[in-house]
Amino acid sequence: MATSASSKLNKAVKQQYMDLPQGDMVQAMYIWIDGSGEGLRCKTRTLDFEPKTIEDLPEWNFDGSSTYQSEGSNSDMFLIPAAMFRDPFRKDPNKLVLCEVLKYNRKPAETNLRKTCKQIMSMVENNHPWFGMEQEYTLLGTDSHPFGWPSNGFPGPQGPYYCGVGADKAYGRDIVEAHYRACLYAGVKICGTNAEVMPAQWEFQVGPCEGINMGDHLWIARFILHRVCEDFGVIVSFDPKPISGNWNGAGCHTNFSTKGMREDGGLKIIEEAIERLAKRHRYHIRAYDPKGGLDNARRLTGYHETSSIDEFSAGVANRGASIRIPRSVGQDKKGYFEDRRPSANCDPYIVTEALVRTCLLKEEGEEPTDYSK
């Protein structure tokens, strides 16, 4: 199993230094989404106080020409603190700081989808939109081979691995447990985890989160997973179809409800929302992966618990549909629905924004409405 050289360094030696007192100083790790729309970057600064709110944190900057975000001749980009979490790696009082990225003219960078999402969420705050996202991922060795798979072949076919127990069924549980506890420490609203259908594939769930918090918490949960995997010397992949053939892909199923849907008789509102989603399928497919649908085309084939990327479908308890209404929701006549189309590498800001635009702002057509005019 190929693991990184860094993971083989003596962690006990490192711990001697991590145990040293840091006085009144605080380390704040600033985190941002790079120009790929998928990758995360980070760097740390020292503060001479412990920040209590996001307003306490100073703006910062970085070289955008090294993150696919600007040219070298005009490379300074601004980091604007947006959400703050406890740091599970350096521990209290140190912080993780999720940032928005602004260009030299202080306009949002192309992959800063948070700014528009926040504007849209502010328009519907009285509806109290709740989200829960199910983040699937695959563990790989540093040679990009799935963790625990035979070096020159494949494991047994799918069947025993989903929620499996045992060394021949669960590949990499130490990473899952470490990530779960680190998220709880950080204050991420992680609400569960399980082994997935393909060996070395896992899932964690984040939510319920209201409005903009959904994107903030999922991105930080992803960052923590990358860092935990770094410590173990392996790679986490959010590719929606990491292994071709008769193996499940990886999605980010998104559960959505509003105040009205959660109240008695809310099923009628859910059904109306699904009717609107049916008329805007192509818009949502474009929003649900970073490459405008090209990544999801490898996953949404109509097989392996997916719907076809070309057709919209909905059904109660149907995991082969675009939209699934849980059986309990059908019985209670209220609750939420699950959009099964977002890919594992989606940006949660645009996924949640798209659902709000179509279901609450009742937008129609192929393009989002510009409310800034």
UniProtKB/TrEMBL annotation:
Domain (GS beta-grasp) ranges: 26-106
Names of required cofactors: Mg(2+); Mn(2+)
Catalytic activity, as annotated: L-glutamate + NH4(+) + ATP = L-glutamine + ADP + phosphate + H(+)
Domain of life: Eukaryota
Any GO BP: glutamine biosynthetic process
EC number(s) stated in the UniProt entry for this protein: 6.3.1.2
GO cellular component labels: mitochondrion
Class of the enzyme per the UniProt entry, highest EC level: ligase
Cellular localization per UniProt: Cytoplasm; Mitochondrion
Entry keyword annotation includes Lipid metabolism: no
Keyword Manganese applies: yes
Family recorded in the similarity comment: Belongs to the glutamine synthetase family.
Name this protein carries in UniProt: Glutamine synthetase
Species whose genome carries this gene: Larimichthys crocea (Large yellow croaker)
